[in-house]
Design brief:
- Helices cover about 30% and strands about 5% of the residues.
- The chain contains 4 helices and 2 strands; from the N terminus they run H-E-H-H-E-H.
- The chain has a two-stranded parallel sheet.
- The longest helix is centred in the first third of the chain and has 16 residues.
- It is elongated.
- Keywords: Signal.
């Protein structure tokens, strides 16, 4: 068996790999009033009761007035979300407008139902 082509190929690959480098990792740029969603399974679900990660985010970016939502739910998987029919899906939850759960209407009172 002739090993010369194999050794030559490995040498060329080693030389070429010296010229290639890994791309810089993507960075997350947060802007003022951004929403941060924590999505996950059991660990994220337990963080709803011990919100140390949210506290660290707010401590690191105090001037950005970030809104952190923990969407963790035990047993969640990438494509499986075991829920009852009454619970909104993640897509519905993320598409809720500010004030959707506000019974008092908007700041100017325009969203108040008649008779209030």
């Amino acid at each position: 068996m002739n090993l010369r082509p194999v050794i030559l190929s490995l040498g060329i690959a080693t030389l070429l790999s010296g010229f290639l480098h890994a791309a810089a990792p993507a960075t997350l740029e947060l802007k003022k009033d951004d929403n941060v969603a924590i999505v996950g399974s059991g660990i994220a679900d337990r963080q709803q009761y011990h919100p140390w990660l949210e506290a660290l985010i707010h401590k690191a970016y105090p001037d950005l007035h970030l809104k952190v939502r923990n969407l963790g739910f035990t047993a969640d998987e990438v494509n499986v979300h075991p829920r009852s029919d009454e619970v909104p899906t993640i897509e519905q939850f993320l598409n809720m407008k500010p004030g959707d759960d506000d019974p008092h209407g908007g700041q100017d009172g325009s969203d108040l139902p008649l008779g209030r």
